[in-house]
Amino acid sequence: MRALGLDVGTKTIGVALSDELGWTAQGLETIKRSEEEPDQDFLTIKRMVEQYDVHTIVVGLPKNMNGTIGPSGERSEQFAEQLQTHVPDCELKMWDERLTTVAAEKMLISADVSRKKRKKVIDKMAAVMILQGYLDHKGN
User: Fold this and answer.
1) I need a surface site. Which of 8, 66, 101, 123 has the fewest CB within 10 A?
2) pTM of the full predicted structure?
């Protein structure tokens, strides 16, 4: 059973997909969010769920360093609630994503990826880290 990982931002959504056994996460794509048609984001994700036979969606929950949920965390929770109405048969999980974007950035820098290229893949890499964290936790 496959899982989809989402790093939800205001301008983009990073997407990662697990293998069929649920062991590894791979970057799938970065969705540019549509301000004019916000439902388009949900329809794009719904198509991925159907195409890849996804049963679980893991949405990154950005918490403050003290564990509280701030405005961006509240936006992620609202996004997850709206997403659930579009994919009611999927199990939705919120996953603490503290420092995933920072870790993804450091990984890309250490791989000597240019700033321009990092900007294009950072959200997808963060989604991979969110999903892999969930998969690793679930496996233990």
Assistant:
1) 66
2) 0.87
